[in-house]
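Private note to self, pasted from the team thread so I don't lose it. Backbone tokens:
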């Protein structure tokens, strides 16, 4: 396998929940470095795409990780291969302390405790606090920290800044920016200012398929394209740089930009 082989190749992925198809026919790649943002309107299937890649929901299609097919593997095997997952729900063990939450996540002999402590000094101070009593942002940091303790070759991170105060959004983005220097990230993120800061590339899903792949900054600079693909206006800082388009119902365009 050459160094140019993407770390993740997704070909014609479809996925279903309780017999209902929630991802139709999604194809894209993730390179071996940097942040690739997976974008799309609400309910378009971004979370389900991540869950399909991980085998957490029923899926069909080809998924290759570092050149190897993983689409028939069970989730625990996929995680063992080196894919870390930071789910949208954060899923901390609320009755356990911060330290216990982190210890439980350690899959290897020499976990990156110092790296994580440097990124999240707040968690070091709160190591004995029950995770259920942490703020949403602090719980998100625990969730990201757990993924960073191990030698992952890819991180799947789902809406890490959702519902967080602006200051905490910045802290979580800082941590992900630092992490992305050592591990490629596939990021689902609604806050386009965060996408602009973190992402190198964007992959946009419209109507169950990938409708656009491109350079992150160039895509976000094209306000008309953003409005058509995502139904948001760029530039309203009160909404993390985005605001619903007046005609947000339109624009699920069939044309393939990819
Ligand atoms: N447990 C479930 N049972 C039934 N339908 C579901 C379930 N989870 C998701 N769906 C449906 O699957 C579709 C895709 O959902 P998904 O969460 O993947 O979208 P998304 O793009 O991540 O959305 P958002 O940006 O709002 O988080 C939606 O129509 C959603 O209603």
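Design output:
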């Amino acid at each position: 396998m050459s160094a140019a082989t993407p770390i993740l190749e997704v070909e014609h992925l479809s996925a279903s929940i309780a017999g209902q198809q929630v991802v139709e026919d999604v194809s894209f790649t993730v390179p071996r470095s940097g942040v690739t943002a997976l974008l799309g309107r609400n309910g378009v299937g971004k979370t389900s795409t991540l869950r399909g890649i991980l085998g957490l929901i029923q899926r069909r299609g080809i998924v290759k990780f570092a050149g190897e097919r993983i689409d028939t593997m069970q989730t625990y095997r996929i995680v063992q291969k080196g894919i870390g997952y930071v789910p949208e729900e954060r899923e901390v063990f609320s009755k356990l302390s911060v330290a216990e939450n982190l210890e439980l996540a350690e899959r290897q002999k020499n976990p990156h405790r110092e790296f994580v402590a440097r990124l999240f000094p707040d968690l070091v101070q709160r190591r004995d606090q029950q995770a259920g009593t942490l703020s949403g942002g602090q719980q998100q940091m625990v969730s990201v920290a757990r993924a960073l303790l191990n030698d992952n070759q890819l991180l799947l991170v789902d809406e890490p800044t959702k519902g967080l105060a602006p200051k905490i959004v910045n802290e979580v983005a800082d941590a992900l920016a630092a992490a992305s220097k050592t591990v490629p990230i596939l990021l689902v993120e609604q806050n386009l200012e965060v996408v602009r800061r973190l992402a190198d590339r964007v992959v946009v899903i419209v109507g169950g398929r990938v409708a656009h792949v491109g350079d992150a900054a160039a895509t976000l600079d094209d306000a008309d394209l953003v409005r058509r693909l995502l139904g948001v206006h760029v530039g309203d800082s009160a909404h993390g740089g985005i605001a619903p388009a007046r005609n947000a119902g339109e624009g699920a365009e069939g044309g393939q930009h990819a």
